[in-house]
Amino acid sequence: MEAVAKxxxxxxxxxxxxxxxxxxxxxxxxxxxxxxxxxVCVLGLMPFKESVTSIYVQPYHDMWMRGFIxxxxxLHDKVxxxxxxxxxxxxxxxxxxxxxxxxxxxxxxxxxxxxxxIENGTYPFVAHxxxxxxxxxxxxxxxxxxxxxxxxxxxxxxxxxxxxxxLAAPIVLYQLWAFIGAGLYRSERxxxxxxxxxxxxxxxxxxxxxxxxxxxxxxxxLVQLMNFGQVQPMVSVSNYFxxxxxxxxxxxxxxxxxxxxxxxxxxxxxxxxxxxxxxxYVILIIFVVAALLTPPDPFTQLMMAGPxxxxxxxxxxxxxxxxxxxxxxxxxxxxx
Length: 336
Known about the structure:
Layout: H1 20-45, H2 49-87, H3 91-120, H4 125-128, H5 131-134, H6 151-167, H7 169-181, H8 186-224, H9 237-254, H10 257-266, H11 272-277, H12 279-293, H13 298-331
Helix pairs in contact: 1-6, 1-7, 2-3, 2-6, 2-8, 8-9, 8-13, 10-13, 12-13
């Protein structure tokens, strides 16, 4: 049974005819090469567990450092304030404040002694990271925890597979294009290739924005809401990696919004005027999507919704330029 080919778009341009079985065999061959490339990259990453782990743990450490600086400044101010308050107190309240000052001073001396080393990364976190909590009083652990013996290993494997897919992306994309491109006319291939660079750049920007901004600041906001006397901020490695992957992947997709708007306009599904007219509904949809794709806190939702609003504005510019170009062509008698 042969697949029915479309009529050639241009005289002399004929798409190759393949049976259904040939299509399946071609797909199997392309998938095998793609999976082989990813598998080779995974094996290549196996000896570098510490380096791979440091990459996906970095946003957590950024959050930790931001919280530590805030804590150190607050502790320094507290010691100075307690000294003034004690002078104005008597009785039991003065004794309580003196005890608080004694304990806070000991913590502040440790923090001030090692603060520069902690902030520039030269402090021996592996050997003495727990001292920052026990002696310095900063309750947030520098290290993630594993609640099961195999949790760290499986998280490392998941991260390795994801990084391997990124490293093997040129081969995988080539195999995908070789399979899909064979069934497209030259003009269709040009149209696809025209948008691929922009889509790739937007994807990378979305992932980087999530990795460098949304995850560290979102975690920082959530941790600062905790009452450390009631809740200890101990984050498991698998839950953290799941949150990191969800937010960065979601932002990579969300950053495609301008190209989606332009494509809908190009094919005539939604005109530029409709995007402009219904901006209120679009903003509502953006905040609903941000709420669905982020943890249930307003700060993280706003950090995702804000860029989406900016991307919507870029999409309006692109569709507006496309609408003007189409109007100009129609006015001159050309095809849209």
